[in-house]
User: Which sequence fits this backbone?
């Protein structure tokens, strides 16, 4: 059981204290990489590793680590994101290299001294060559500091469509360091849209109905399990982004959804899973404990009896409606997320879900795809740039009404709407909203 979250001080403490085995401290999709937040995040992780981290809120409440906290793993940024504050020969270095170097250098001794080690999550990999590059980086760092090969360990997220066809090669390229692969489901859906953007028969429906029981996502999950277990690597399940509710009936619905989602993963043969909120830990842990019984993992689930999973299955179209409410919800989620991100907050609760960059990417690329292929909504309205702009203006008023005048006027919603309009109506699909968004960050 792994919990994920940004590297803010209070969240680091709460996550390490949660009823989970692992905390994945995230410099990637749940962090808006303002320079101060990146540096503070490294300080917070150093203090967590040393056991000295504490936090006092405005009311005077003190947060400290409990005995036996969760295992710490650091997720670095994707290779596409630069760190503009550090340059080499006049060019910004990759943010991922900066994140890796600081976390490794400042913590490897303390981690090894307490029987742990420098452990990483690698996101957004497109091809085995990236995995091979990371293997070189890890091996160089080990040699430079006289550490045995394999001291640095990593789990790699399979969250792009090209990577799902190269899992054997990725595991081989990182064989000295790899622990497992993870189903990064939200970014995978985003990558499906982006990779197949020119195929009108591969346009996805409302994002709310693109769930893990859909054939193309089920094939992805099962192939990842089969590939990992064949090679002796762990196969991690995906993120449950739900947030517990204070309303008892609503909370019961949330926990039932989490239970069903995690049961599907456990029954498929995953070895563990992700949650975004400590309040989901007991529910998800119970499901996996029941599935695993006395076993530590499910490496024995080989899926050898399955029919071969084909490219056609991995690329299969997804059935479902494109609705006006779905399009409007996409607009509201994306605008609110972009506003939070350019304001320095990368992990945002919106409508009962913990949204990060991946879900905002799905929201805006879905609409781009519908416009690009001149699709029609279930009520007969053709999706055009004009319709999108009209809905954007209308949904801005809804957001203002929901959040209140003060929050709206003191925020950066006009900038967020402009960026949303730019990346949704461009003739060519913008690769990542975080690239133009990064220019608006301090």
Assistant:
């Amino acid at each position: 059981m792994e919990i994920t979250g940004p590297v803010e001080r209070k969240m680091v403490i709460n996550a390490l204290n949660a009823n989970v085995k692992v905390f994945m401290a995230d410099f990637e999709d749940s962090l808006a990489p303002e320079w101060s937040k990146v540096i503070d995040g490294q300080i917070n992780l150093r203090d967590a590793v040393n056991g000295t981290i504490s936090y006092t809120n405005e009311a005077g409440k003190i947060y400290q680590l409990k005995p036996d906290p969760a295992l710490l793993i650091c997720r670095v940024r994707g290779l596409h994101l630069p760190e503009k504050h550090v340059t080499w020969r006049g060019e910004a270095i990759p943010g991922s290299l900066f994140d890796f170097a600081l976390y490794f250098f400042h913590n490897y001794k303390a981690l090894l001294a307490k029987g742990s080690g420098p452990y990483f999550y690698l996101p957004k990999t497109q091809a085995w060559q990236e995995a091979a590059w990371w293997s070189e980086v890890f091996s160089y760092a080990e040699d430079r500091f006289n550490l045995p090969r394999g001291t640095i360990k990593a789990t790699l997220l399979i969250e792009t469509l090209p990577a799902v066809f190269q899992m054997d090669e990725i595991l081989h390229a990182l064989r000295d360091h790899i622990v497992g692969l993870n189903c990064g489901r939200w970014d995978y859906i985003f990558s499906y849209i982006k990779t197949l953007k020119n195929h009108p028969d591969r346009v996805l429906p409302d994002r709310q109905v693109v769930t893990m029981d859909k054939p193309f996502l089920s094939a992805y999950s099962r192939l990842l399990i089969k590939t990992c277990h064949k090679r002796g690597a762990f196969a991690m399940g995906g993120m449950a982004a739900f947030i517990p509710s204070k309303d008892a009936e609503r909370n019961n619905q949330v926990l039932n959804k989490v239970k069903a989602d995690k049961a599907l993963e456990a029954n498929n043969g995953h070895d563990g899973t992700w949650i975004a909120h400590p309040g989901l830990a007991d529910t998800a842990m119970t499901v996996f404990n029941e599935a695993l019984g006395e076993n530590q993992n499910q490496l024995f689930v080989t899926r050898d009896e399955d029919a071969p999973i084909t490219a056609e299955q991995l690329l299969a179209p997804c059935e479902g409606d494109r609705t006006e409410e779905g399009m409007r919800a996409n607009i509201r989620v994306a605008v609110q997320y972009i506003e939070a991100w350019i304001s320095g907050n990368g992990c945002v609760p919106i409508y009962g879900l913990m949204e990060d960059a991946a879900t905002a990417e799905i929201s805006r690329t879905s609409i781009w795809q519908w416009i690009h292929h001149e699709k029609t909504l279930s009520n007969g309205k053709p999706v055009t740039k004009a319709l999108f702009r009209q809905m954007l203006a209308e949904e801005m008023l809804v957001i203002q009404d929901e959040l209140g005048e003060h929050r709206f006027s003191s925020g950066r919603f006009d900038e967020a709407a402009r960026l949303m309009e730019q990346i949704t109506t461009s003739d060519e699909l913008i690769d990542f909203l975080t690239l133009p968004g990064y220019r608006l960050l301090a």
About this structure: The chain has a mean pLDDT of 96. The chain has 17 helices and 14 strands. Residues 266 and 291 are 6 Å apart (CA to CA). The two ends are 34 Å apart (CA to CA).
